[in-house]
Amino acid sequence: MSYDCIIIGGGIAGLQAGIMLGRYRHKVLMIDSGQGRSSLCHRYNNIIGFPDGVSGQQLRHDGKKQAESFGVETLEGNVVDVHSNFIVETEEGEAIPTRTVLFATGIDEKFPPIPGIKECLGLSIYVCQDCDGYEITGQKTAVVGCGEAGAQLALTLKDWSEDIIFFNHSGAPLSLEMQGKLRDRRILVQQVEVSKFEHNQGLLEAVLTADDHRWEIKKAFLAFSGNRVQSDLAVKLGADATEKGHLVVHPRTKMTSMEGVWAAGDVVDHSQFVTTAMGDGAQASVWIHKWLKERR
Fold this sequence. Notes:
The chain is α/β, with parallel strands linked by helices.
């Protein structure tokens, strides 16, 4: 069986594209591993229409049902290769032909193995100041991170709270200039590893450090490097990518450098908002539809 489009990745961008393509009455298959970045967040608070917030899992669950209601087929699994003749190969050995491919493969979020992180994500521990800086307004907040990146986040969060403590978890050196900035902004710096985030049902109660100190803190931000853009399959196929691995797309159509291959969401170099991913997916779907229609 051949498809008009196979969407690789069933996160926010992939689901939005699937909904649109289903409404265009195209034959669409969405393949998803179920391990996407959005599945980790217990609450998004900055999406229009959800004043009380909504979890990534809820968005994914409802989005999948909505896409399926428009005829989109879904398959749980991993794609291991996309061949130049547009045969998509799965981990289970299936070889599925398609006319177009949309990569919505996102970013593999890397966190240090500190107990409590995953339970608190989106509820009391955050990673994006633009998305969730508001959540710490006026509250004592821990920034747990590495070196200059963590220190810079601590400085940025002063827009919302005056009580910021930076835990330089890795002990990476800070420049004299950065040390001066932290001192001037009265940000307390602790050169110690965090051993645990103590919480109650995802609500942070304390930060425990390797020196056996317990810091009573209700909010925290993470600033760790090592996230991996999941663009390998597209690059192997021949799509251009930036130095950091983000797929290069046309700003209007979201097509990659390869004819018939699109990309949307965090695998593209954008602001990494859920709402931006939705827009990317919708925009890509319009141009996939136009491309398919011209080649009927």
